[in-house]
């Protein structure tokens, strides 16, 4: 069973200088409630693993703007001018990743893999300091697994077992991050007392520790 | 004649539309490439994939189709065509990397005679990040660059890209408001001259040699 907690209670799982994963693609399927609680605390120094750093006034972007992110491992920062400014002033470390490689690295972290081999980035700056492995004459980059101490994800539906299901394009990284983190907190729009239809479950409940009622604010 | 930005974009988008075939699985970059959909010939239906996890993107949402949980990669609300589905980011990029996308159309900061592409970073000035562009161009069956021929008068088609690369030797075709080039093994081949340009104009605004082979 996943335990139902409040956004304020979720703060207890965060510590300074932790590595955290946060799901979402820009504003779509992006958890927000726990982030608003984190903004009320002195916690900082996080390494953020996420698709992007959002926008200045929403979700992950707010953590960047509040100076709480020391390093961001993301595929895109262009939609948040504050990330770009901090990066240009060398006040935040940005590790830009090809989006598909980022997804596979998260998967590897949760799937017990020692890394993944991808042709993406060969011959570009992304290949710097990475091992190149040649398989049947073709070069691949060895991309290492990513794990986190806490993952904060969004889901449209959950049951009390912690099973998660998604509507529309909200699956994005939300469906990948739970296996890769020690503590998983899901902000859910609809929590059901009845078990979800097993055919529809995208994230098995065994990966999910805590549920928060309320979920996404659903703005575009 | 001097073309406005809107005119240039329309010329390019109309030409890109001719590259798309019925049933193609297509990914289109944000901005100019996406405009090509408007000019698809009647009877040509394509399946648009969006990297954030939509296969079968329809149009933009209106008041009757509003749903904040269905967006394209630019974050705009879109509809899903009949037969479409949603993907998580692993499945979305497996589709791209695994060679399941027929045609990809992207913009570029620079593209060169070797088919190299730069579109994610101007060091020290502008670094939005590569997002899904690197994965996309590596796996697609055909890569078309759709862009304005020059940036503030400076050539964007070069002998060799000077900006950080997105991918090496991947571009198949370049479409601008002036010309259509193919990337061959030993350099660029000019295939079409736009009615709004001339061979001399193209030579003057392209920073690499090319072969002229217009059918």
What does this structure look like?
The complex is a heterodimer of chains A (220) and B (215). Chain A has 220 residues and is an alpha/beta fold. Chain A has a single domain, classed as Glutaconate Coenzyme A-transferase. Helices cover 17% and strands 29% of the residues of chain A. Chain A contains 5 helices and 12 strands. In chain A, α4 (81-88) links the parallel β4 and β5 (93-96). By secondary structure, chain B is α/β, with parallel strands linked by helices. Chain B has a single domain, classed as Glutaconate Coenzyme A-transferase (3-Layer(aba) Sandwich), CATH 3.40.1080. In chain B, α3 runs parallel beside α4. The model of chain B has no long low-confidence stretch (mean pLDDT 95). At the A-B interface, α4 and α5 of A face α3 and α4 of B.
List strands and helices in order, with pairings:
The complex is a heterodimer of chains A (220) and B (215).
Chain A: E1 3-5, H1 7-10, E2 19-22, H2 33-38, E3 46-49, H3 59-65, E4 69-74, H4 81-88, E5 93-96, H5 99-111, E6 116-118, E7 132-135, E8 138-143, E9 148-159, E10 164-165, E11 181-192, E12 210-213
Parallel strand pairs in A: 1-12, 2-3, 2-9, 3-4, 4-5, 9-11, 11-12
Antiparallel strand pairs in A: 6-8, 7-8, 9-10
Chain B: H1 5-17, E1 25-28, H2 32-35, E2 47-50, E3 54-60, E4 78-86, H3 89-97, E5 103-106, E6 110-112, E7 117-118, H4 133-139, E8 142-146, E9 150-151, E10 154-155, E11 157-158, E12 173-175, E13 179-184, E14 187-193, H5 199-204, E15 210-212
Parallel strand pairs in B: 1-2, 1-5, 5-8, 6-11, 8-12, 14-15
Antiparallel strand pairs in B: 2-3, 3-4, 6-7, 9-10, 12-13, 13-14
Helix pairs in contact in B: 3-4
